Amino acid sequence: MFMGEHHHNIDDKGRMIVPAKFREELGSTFVVTRGMDKCLFVYPESEWKQLEQKLKTLPFTKKDARAFTRFFFSGAAECELDKQGRVNIASTLRSYAKLEKECVIIGVSNRVEIWSKSIWEEYFAESEESFAEIAEGIVDFEL
Known about the structure:
Strand content: 25-35%
CATH superfamily: Transcriptional regulator MraZ domain
CATH architecture: 3-Layer(aba) Sandwich
Strand order of the largest sheet: 1-7-8-4-3-5
CATH topology: Chemotaxis protein chec
Largest sheet: 6 strands, antiparallel
CATH class: Alpha Beta
């Protein structure tokens, strides 16, 4: 399971260190794609395959299903770590998530998310205020 928040920089070539505690669970190859809220989603190969199977069941006759799968899969890139534990993020994905220098890498259960530091801070500040309200609406157990 992925959890925690880590801060790293992305260099001019698009390389970013993946936190050591995430490397083993991500495996030798993993998938990076466009995520929600202007971040990138990173999936271990096994999780990606499960997600792919679920998305294949969406009805292609539905406009929203076609749009979502196009968006999600067209941005996907199979990646691997270099010897220094860095991942090279494609320029199209860096542009989508506005990754320029300072990044935040967070663990979110079955995936990792990569955020621009400024976008993460803005998102976190907005969400923090309504965390209890959000939890009340979606969580059916005591935390």
